[in-house]
Amino acid sequence: MALTIGLTGGIASGKSTVTKMIRELGIPVIDADQIARDVVKVGEEAYKQIIQTFGQNILQENGEIDRAKLGAIVFHNEQERKKLNAIVHPAVRRRMLAEKEAYVQKGAKTVVLDIPLLFESELTHLIDKIIVVYVDDDVQLERLMKRNGFSKEEALARIRAQMPLREKVKKADAVIDNNGTIEETKQQLLQIFKRWNAL
Ligand SMILES: CC(C)(COP(=O)(O)OP(=O)(O)OC[C@H]1O[C@@H](n2cnc3c(N)ncnc32)[C@H](O)[C@@H]1O)[C@@H](O)C(=O)NCCC(=O)NCCS
Ligand SMILES: Nc1ncnc2c1ncn2[C@@H]1O[C@H](COP(=O)(O)OP(=O)(O)OP(=O)(O)O)[C@@H](O)[C@H]1O
């Protein structure tokens, strides 16, 4: 039986930074954000449902979804966000499960699922162990504004659309504190993987 680890945290808390380290260790990572992009490509079922729900206005000229426009709607309105989640999440769940099974079939000892909304979307039943990547509020805000070029208000809207990071920490089997240097983060990751015999 493969060990399935769920990696989660808050927006800009450092999940991608940690998944890069995990991949370098040779462990496969399935990225929910990437799958969420794939399932809304032109012609996919979720793409059609999004247009039916949000109208043609959220499309770019080439027909692809304008993520900035859709983000501006859903991160300022919980009702609209729930509608989008209800369209996208089932498709993401199905594809993640299929990808996980494929890795297990190929003999992977450990598989990591990087799911920003692991707790919010009740996906914990797919997972044996949960790692939460944690940063302090001020560090999260600063890194998010810097990485995405967001104003404080835009960044806070996204942070508030998620379960507070401190709540996630309480539900974790292990926590990586990513306030420090990248090297400190890597050491914590290695210790957890050794403890769980995941390597
Ligand atoms: C609203 C969209 C179009 C904005 O796209 P954009 O390219 O600006 O952001 P991206 O997809 O890279 O997400 C960045 C981060 O925002 C956060 N986030 C994304 N969607 C949500 C959501 N529905 N609720 C809360 N936080 C979210 C996550 O931390 C994610 O890592 C996009 O995020 C989306 O389609 N969201 C719905 C699907 C979803 O829930 N994805 C998250 C993982 S399944
Ligand atoms: N320990 C660190 N020290 C300094 N900067 C860091 C550290 N960890 C991450 N960062 C930077 O902070 C930003 C957020 O990190 P990252 O992109 O890994 O977060 P994330 O959790 O994957 O975000 P999202 O939920 O949006 O996908 C990035 O610009 C990254 O380079």
From TrEMBL:
**This protein's UniProt keywords:** ATP-binding, Coenzyme A biosynthesis, Cytoplasm, Kinase, Nucleotide-binding, Transferase
Entry-linked Pfam families: CoaE
Q: What InterPro entries does the record tag this protein with?
A: Depp_CoAkinase, P-loop_NTPase
Q: Which GO terms describe its molecular function?
A: ATP binding; dephospho-CoA kinase activity
Its annotated function is as follows: Catalyzes the phosphorylation of the 3'-hydroxyl group of dephosphocoenzyme A to form coenzyme A.
Family listed: Belongs to the CoaE family.
Q: What is this protein called?
A: Dephospho-CoA kinase
What species is this protein from?
Parageobacillus thermantarcticus
